[in-house]
Amino acid sequence: MKQMDVYKMNEYELIKKELLGKQYVWLITGVAGFIGSNLLEQLLKLNQKVVGLDNFSTGYKKNIDEVKNLVTKEQWLNFKIIKGDIRNINDCKKAMYYQSTMNNKNNKIPVDYVLHQAALGSVPRSIKDPILTNQNNIDGFLNIMIASRDAKVKSFTYAASSSTYGDSKSLPKKENKIGKPLSSYAVTKYVNELYAYVFKINYDFNSIGLRYFNVYGPRQDPNGAYAAVIPLWIDSILNGKQIYINGDGKNSRDFTYIDNVVQANILAATTQKKNSKNEIYNIACGKNITLDNLNIKIRKKISEKLKIKNKTNIYRENRIGDVKKSKADILKAKKLLKYDPNIEIEKGLEKTVAWFLKNDKKY
Known about the structure:
The protein is of the alpha/beta class. It has a single domain, classed as Rossmann fold, CATH 3.40.50. The chain has 14 helices and 15 strands. Strands 3-2-1-6-7-8-13 form a seven-stranded parallel beta sheet, with helices on both faces. Strands 4-5 form a two-stranded antiparallel ribbon. It has a two-stranded parallel sheet with strand order 9-12. The longest helix is centred in the middle third of the chain and has 22 residues. The N and C termini lie far apart (44 Å). The N terminus is likely disordered.
């Protein structure tokens, strides 16, 4: 490779090139979920070994099956899945090893990198059932941290949440300034950050928390009472269902395409810089859009592909626990992780709509 070509490559491209040349073992909790399965796809394409842990409560076998169809047979053989629950400490400990049967021998290879995505998401669901949310997001988080600490993994990266900003009115959201939580889900995600800090000062265990802002993209579930807005609206338009907008349409969000989140996880897991570790980072695009404008863009992307008769939007009250405006400051992630969210809303929606059009019959 010419020196000029290397110079043009960003940090993420350099890391991917390095991973293609050296195989590590990764653990993805929640591997059958939307984010987990996209992480799995990228890591297998980079010829990495992956252990997946999932209880399939909110994840789906079809997500794993799709990944299988997108990688080579050799890459797929690098994946081992464990049906287990992060609320069970023994399942977490079991997941810290990749079970290899090479040369007819059962070898246990320890995990190098942990990407902890398993959680019970959704603000409304957490308000309806705070006990179950707490069990998954706090008890489960503590279990996987203890198992990772005891296994002496190279790094521990976990999914934090923009819900941690709570009632803070400041925009853009900066990592060092949060408000009071507005939901049980937000409480659990903040407790994760507190535990990460405690594990550092008590056990010298390093971790990185990624505060996701409204992630969307292929394989995101449009069904159920707690579906995210983008897959829900796409599915509704494709299938002639009514579209509901919570609030007056002026509420805004910093929507983040899944590939940007995958990039952030790999950058965080592999960073060697001490000042980059034991930090919290906003993972977003640093731009927000109102729900009204988002709705217009989604309808336009679909109408470019299909002739569909659109139903009029129905506006209703804001959901309890939702914030009205959200926008991330991503300078910290750009500076310390070299995060580069190069897929913004237009391109991200185009890719997402294309996936749903291809897979609509499955839903």
